[in-house]
Amino acid sequence: MTVGLIGCGFLLALAAHFSQVRSAVECPLNLKLLCNEQTNCNECIRIHPCCHWCYDQQNFTGSRCNFIEELKQCDGQVEKNVESKLEIETDKDFTAIRKTSDVTRVIQIKPQGFKVVLRKDAPINFTFTYNAAKNYPLELYYLGDLSYSMRTHLETLKNLGDDLGKSLENLTLNYKLAYGSFLDKPALPFFYTDEKNMNNPCMSESQKCERGYLFRHRLNFTKNTGRFFDKVKNSQISANVDDLDGALEAISQILVCNKKFGWTENSRKLIVLSTDSLLHTAGDGLLAGAVKKNDDVCLIDYHGNYMDPLRYDYPSVGQIRRLLKDYKVNLIIAVTKDKIKFYEQMKTHILNDEVYVGELEENSANILKLVNTGFYNFMRQVQFSANTSHAPELDVKFFGNCDGFGHFNQTSACYNVEEETPVTFKVQITLKEFTSKKVEQIFIKEKNINEELTVNIEYAGCDCTCENYQARDILNCGPNGVLSCGSCLCSEGWTGPTCSEECSYNVTLCRNIKSANKLTCSGAGDCLCGKCECDFPHSGKFCEFYCPVDKRNRICSGHGTCFEGECTCDAAYSGKDCSCETGVENCKLTGRDYICNGHGACECNSCQCDEGFEGAYCEKNKEKNFFCDIYSDYVKEFKENGTSLFRRNNVEVLVEGLRETSNDGDGECSLVYFPGATRRCRIDYRYVSGQNNSIHLHVTSEECVMTNTATATFFALAAFMGVVLLGLIFIAFKKFQIYRMDQAEYKRFITEKKSVSEMNPLYKSPVSTFTNPMARSQ
Questions:
Q1: Span 747-751, mean pLDDT?
Q2: H or E segment at 199?
Q3: For domain 583-623, which CATH number applies: 2.10.25.10, 3.90.1570.10, 1.10.1020.10, 3.40.50.1820?
């Protein structure tokens, strides 16, 4: 039977408020009128924690839904209401890993358990901290592609020797290794299936290699790196036909055979896939007649061989992602340059944070670097989730303080985590709808480690139980209702004390004859069974009142309860729509004694500055920022001497270097200082209130130039050197000219020398020569 709560539609909306958890519920007098209007127990306890229900039918004659002090004569038959509240159940301190036995007792999440009393639309907020332990165990499964094209890569792996162990020791002192290899399904069209090629797939290359297989697990997890390398050195290359391999099927078996291979619970888990090939995915197995889906069954025999590879299809990429998340394993893909684009797209569109893709150099020379980079990529990630599939009535939101400055953004993940550096998260749990369940339990888990935070939830203000109900005369609600705490809850279309009266659809009962507005339910609701069901955000018997809503469409800004169009605000809020916070914590910077720096008033937990002043704390005027004078010396000390932590009047001042989140902070400052006689530096930084009475100074930029004196000296020296240099150049040029002239003169001298007789012109030869004129020529 479906039981309708007549006229409770708007009552549910009235119950919507974002209440603060307090030690006692404050009950303003006008809420008593709101309580008195409720006609049954469920409506009573749902409307507000101040409303309690008397189910004594015989001795009590007043308003049965009332404040608890008004129900003293109810003879103990009271359905007491409770408010939302929170308490810590388990809170053990963080632990360090100093020896192997510490691993099973390591604590990286604090607290570990909460107990929550939760009312509908009254969220509960709590905070927990994650602290990544140093030397947390690492289990690395190396999955090698042993196809013929990867032969040089295998040789590199065989020769790594002690380098692998030393590299892993830099990551953690507690590590284990396992090893396996893959090729493809040993059938056409992936292998040549004639006997000769099956026995020696490398025959076409005139080489002898191992018979083809899909996946072979060669070594369980071990601390002995010597055993690992023995298995690697005994591995042989094989070959297949196409450029797509069965890596996904190998990965799925590594995951589902986790216990068989030696995976443990308390560890970071990595699979390193080294390949130069693409991937076969779901559907490709049809080519070899393998069409059955493997429903996460381990198919590895005693010898490490994959059984029946021609029955089961390849897994899909989505299935691999699910398995990686289920078994808390991350995948490092080391792939050659010609194939890396495919894997990067697969990561971007499907695998996301579960995979790191890196370029594998020729012959795997950088494989250790890729393992290190991939490890830190995953170690610096922390991501929490809560599985509420069994509790659809719950809404869970996460807020992370990833930068450590106290600013929480809505996110369940941080990507800048360092070992032994705490990161704080806030969780907001909301009951979205009323439920018949009394208790619930959810677990908040981190995606890479086997630790969880338990939240035990007790639902309040949903349905009455009236455990001590003793009716002298059992009320008969007939076939049209059910008995609940001394009154009948009627089915739709029925009304009356015993649900025996059919609903009257006379709309006259839903019109306020005393008002100028004679519309049914004031035009803001529907008339059901002679009562108004009001539209949001109207209220009242005739929907004649309009409740204030904020920009997010929340009645009383989610911080109060509306009655007759007016808000009754929770303790920490005020104002017509309860949007004004009554605290002053946002009007004072940590360590400052004056609200709004003495130059403004704190209104709604925000500074309204006097004329001439501005800033979150009224700390600025046209001439200066007064807070900068306080903190500049700390930043200067940080840059000159590296000191980052200071104490000032019981306040910790922490200076942070350049970081990505450069826009966070309450104010901006610039510091000009001279680290030497020749340099002038400007540093921009922001100040922000942190947790535990601390101030964070966040350096956002730094720029250094030469001083004017140094600049003048430099130019003077440059001018002097320029003159000297020009002089040297002039001298060199003149010397070159003289050299050219000397060369030309010498050349001319040689030429003239050839045309002059070598005989002394003053010498006269004693020999005379005469010619006979009578002689005839021959």
A1: 77
A2: helix 195-199
A3: 2.10.25.10
